[in-house]
Amino acid sequence: MYLKFAWRYFKAKKSTNAINIISWVTAGVIAFSTLCQVLVLSVFNGFEDLVKSLYSNFYSDIKVVPDKGKTFTLTQSQLEQIHTIPGIKGTSLNVEEKALLQNGNQQTVVLLKGVDTNYYKVSGVPQKMYHGVFNVGNIDNPKLVLGAGIESAIGIEADRNLFPITVFLAKKTNSNNPLSALSEGNATTSGSFAIQQDFDNKYVITNLAFMKQQMNYQPSEYSALEISLNDPGKSEEFSKTLQKLLGNKYKVLTKYEQNMSLYNSMKLEKWFIYAVLTLILIIAAFNMVGALTMLVLEKRKDISVLQSMGADKSLIQKIFLTEGTLLAVVGAGTGIILALIIAFLQMKFHLIKLTGNSFLIDYFPVKLVFTDFILVVFTALIIAFAASWFPAKKASQQLFNLKA
């Protein structure tokens, strides 16, 4: 019954026009806020998916690193034990260290990564070549695959360069002579990759044997073991199993844990913007309080009639609480419908463009997630309910009076 009364009050023309104006302004503000919230959350979802896809090309599903220090020892027996765990698609051992590349008078500091012949099984880098081919050579003929940004830094085109690049690396030694702690080697370039600036401006890939020789590493000494899985969705379960097998001298990281700071910062930005947009709903709530208070004053006689017919305080309170909820439902529903229309147009026609040419795409990516809609509607209803509580309470406490 209270829903019927609330609906009649909602659609009926009020004697005071200001009540109508304030009510529709309130619904409009709620619609605008929900529209913004859905679109912003969807754009953040789109960017999150895009960044994850870019980073997944470089990072493996599982990465084993030393718990302390830069390197660990991994024997053939341990590797065989690891391969007994079901679900492994491929494994690759590597060594990673800072190095100085020199091409004539041009120098740049890079992260040099030495990989074995199984690297293509755990990484998407070989499929993201920008110039040339992915060829890291061997210990006798080492080759370098540069990040696209490194090409510019040392002034070459990796697939056309005919002259060797000098590679300086710090090596393990017991000598006190600083010069003996630095190795110098030459390598030619075979190509360059382009994934994302974080990698393109930092990484150079070569073969594992060359790196270990230059750094004076032991045969079973490595920086990391990278693993790809048949089902990446089971990485959490796999990492726990592998951690038990290897013990506490090793740290087993999922793809998320390898990039925890990035994913956390993206989520923090997303929910910060959501919180800011929620403030618009809270502002709308003040308009709702005013509109409902004025409606209560206008409907005092109706309230008295209902009381004379046996309506208790609870029923009257529910009527005005429902009135506020209807405002939120109409506003939120309108906002969500508009957001869906804009989102689908953006996904199909890429109407809203990104400024500048520094990103891989030239439009705002959008991904609609059902839970975002639930969250936005729930937020609007909670705020509307809270805003409606005081006017509804006052209406229920009105004294019975049928006098004109």
Describe the structure.
The protein is α+β, with helices and mostly antiparallel strands and 404 residues long. It has 2 domains: 2-55 and 262-396, no CATH class; 62-254, no CATH class. It is built from 12 helices and 12 strands. It has helices at residues 2-11, 17-56, 76-82, 148-154, 197-200, 208-215, 235-246, 255-258, 260-298, 300-308, 313-349, 370-396, and strands at residues 62-66, 72-73, 88-103, 106-115, 129-132, 143-147, 165-170, 182-193, 203-207, 221-222, 224-229, 250-254. Strands 3-4-9-6-8-7 form a 6-stranded mixed beta barrel. A two-stranded antiparallel sheet has the order 2-10. Strand 3 (88-103) and strand 4 (106-115) form a beta hairpin. Helix 2 (17-56) runs antiparallel to helix 9, helix 2 crosses helix 11 (313-349) and helix 9 (260-298) packs parallel to helix 12 (370-396). The longest helix is centred in the N-terminal third of the chain and has 40 residues, at 17-56. The chain starts with a helix and ends in an 8-residue tail after the last helix.
* Percent in helix: 40-55%
Strand content: 15-25%
Topology, number of strands = 12
- Average pLDDT confidence is 89
Radius of gyration: 32 Å
User: What structural class is derived from the secondary structure elements?
Assistant: alpha+beta
Low-confidence stretches: none
Shape: elongated
Order of strands in the sheet with most strands? 3-4-9-6-8-7
Cα-to-Cα separation, first versus last residue: 26 Å
* H and E order: HHEEHEEEEHEEHEHEEHEHHHHH
Number of domains: 2
